[in-house]
């Protein structure tokens, strides 16, 4: 479906550009940026990330210890401590110990947290152009995603972060998102209608599920298991690694391989912490981030394979959309492109679609 899909998207956007307004910025919740000041613990700023003779990096992530993203942070820490001869020490806080994605991003801004990897969806309310990577069915496979993320477009987007007090070093991988629920097997697009689905706290994600007839409920990842267990929502959508390592399979019976969004997960550090580093230390941090990225991507690819096998063993019903249903799903979410392309910037979206087509 790759060639057809990208061609259809580009044609639609060109038509939209001929009829529509100029570019505006995605709002996605920017009004909440001032909430940073409401966290009264921020004044601790955690000792300017230094203690004694060592500079301390606190890395926070919402995922559990077993998840590839957490393991990537651990690997990053090992490399940094070794290469810096202990001048920089790294502490990893998994499982949302220091908050959900939004709280962690705000922690970076305040330098109470020095590093993290977060999916692009929760970043978009702070840096709106990051919404482009959450457009549905943008990337047909991981290899295409890597080429774009590690190339000029990905690098250009990281340049939007410093004005938010954050430095983006590269992109890790959360993976392709799939739908789970505890109500019924989803084998057609129509089966999605009426399901109460937890989504990321991101307007684009919310609108996508509305287009499919679901009732989207934005919620922090750290609250999700309890919401599923108590029936607050019928289901959720996440990379399969999150389904296994967070035990969603205990409260969800059905999973459908929708592959509706590929989740890049930028690795970021606090700008205040970054500026406290020497040039040599910055080189160590960047090199460690690149090595950890490659390690984490490999882990995540294997994690996907192992996770589906595990879920089958645990008795979850695993469904794969037919080619026809995948096409229907793709067509159903086109209004998301029509709404968000002008807000992100049609020229930028078209540039990205052309780059994907050329891979």
How would you describe this protein?
By secondary structure, the chain is α/β, with parallel strands linked by helices. The chain starts with a helix and ends with a helix. It is built from 14 helices and 11 strands. It is globular. The protein has a single domain (2-357), classed as D-Maltodextrin-Binding Protein, domain 2 (3-Layer(aba) Sandwich). The longest helix has 35 residues, at 279-313.
Any descriptors?
11 strands, globular, 359 residues, 44% helix, D-Maltodextrin-Binding Protein, domain 2, alpha/beta, three-stranded mixed sheet
Radius of gyration: 20 Å
CATH topology name, in short, is: D-Maltodextrin-Binding Protein, domain 2
**Gross CATH architecture:** 3-Layer(aba) Sandwich
- Quickly count the domains: 1
Give me the CATH superfamily.
Bacterial extracellular solute-binding protein, family 7
Class by alpha and beta content: alpha/beta
Query: CA-to-CA gap between the ends?
Result: 14 Å
* H and E order: HEEHEHEHHHEEHEHEHEEHHEHHH
| Low-pLDDT stretches | 14-51
Number of strands: 11
CATH class: Alpha Beta
What is the count of DSSP helices, taking H or I runs of 4+ residues? 14
What about the largest sheet? 8 strands, mixed
Strand content: 15-25%
* Mean pLDDT across all amino acids: 88
Basic shape: globular
Helical residues, percent? 40-55%
Which helices and strands, and how do they pair?
Layout: H1 2-19, E1 50-51, E2 54-60, H2 68-83, E3 88-93, H3 101-110, E4 115-117, H4 120-123, H5 142-149, H6 152-158, E5 166-181, E6 196-199, H7 203-211, E7 215-218, H8 224-229, E8 235-239, H9 240-245, E9 254-257, E10 262-270, H10 271-275, H11 279-313, E11 317-320, H12 323-332, H13 334-344, H14 346-357
Parallel strand pairs: 2-3, 6-7, 6-8, 9-11
Antiparallel strand pairs: 1-2, 4-10, 5-8, 5-9, 5-10
Helix pairs in contact: 1-13, 1-14, 2-11
């Amino acid at each position: 479906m790759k060639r057809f899909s990208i061609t259809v998207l580009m044609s639609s956007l060109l038509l939209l550009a001929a009829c529509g307004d100029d570019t505006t910025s995605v709002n996605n919740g920017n009004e909440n940026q001032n909430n940073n000041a409401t966290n009264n613990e921020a004044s601790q700023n955690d000792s300017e990330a230094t203690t004694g003779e060592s500079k301390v990096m606190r890395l926070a992530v919402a995922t559990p210890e077993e998840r590839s993203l957490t393991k990537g942070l651990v690997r990053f820490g090992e490399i940094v401590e070794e290469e810096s001869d202990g001048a920089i020490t790294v502490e990893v806080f998994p499982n949302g110990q220091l908050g959900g994605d939004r709280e962690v991003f705000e922690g970076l801004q305040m330098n109470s947290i020095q590093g993290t990897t977060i999916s692009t969806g929760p970043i978009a309310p702070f840096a709106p152009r990051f919404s482009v990577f959450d457009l549905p069915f943008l990337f047909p496979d991981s290899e295409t995603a890597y080429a774009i993320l590690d190339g000029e477009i990905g690098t250009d987007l990281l340049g939007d972060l410093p004005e938010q007090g954050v430095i983006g070093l590269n992109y890790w991988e959360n993976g392709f998102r799939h739908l789970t629920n505890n109500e019924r097997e989803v084998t057609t697009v129509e089966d999605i209608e009426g399901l109460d689905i937890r989504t990321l706290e991101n307007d684009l994600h919310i609108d996508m599920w509305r287009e499919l007839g679901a009732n989207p409920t934005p919620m922090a990842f750290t609250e999700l298991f309890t919401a599923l267990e108590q029936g607050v929502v019928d289901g959720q959508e996440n990379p399969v690694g999150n389904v296994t390592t967070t035990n969603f399979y205990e409260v969800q019976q059905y999973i459908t391989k929708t592959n509706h969004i590929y989740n890049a997960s930028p690795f970021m550090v606090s700008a205040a912490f970054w500026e406290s580093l020497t040039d040599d230390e910055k080189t160590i941090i960047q090199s460690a981030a690149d090595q950890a990225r490659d390690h984490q991507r490999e882990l995540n690819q294997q994690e996907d394979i192992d996770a589906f096998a595990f879920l089958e063993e645990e008795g979850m019903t695993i469904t794969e959309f037919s080619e026809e249903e995948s096409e229907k799903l793709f067509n159903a979410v086109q209004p998301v492109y029509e709404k968000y392309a002008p807000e992100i910037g049609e020229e930028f979206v078209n540039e990205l679609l052309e780059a994907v087509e050329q891979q």
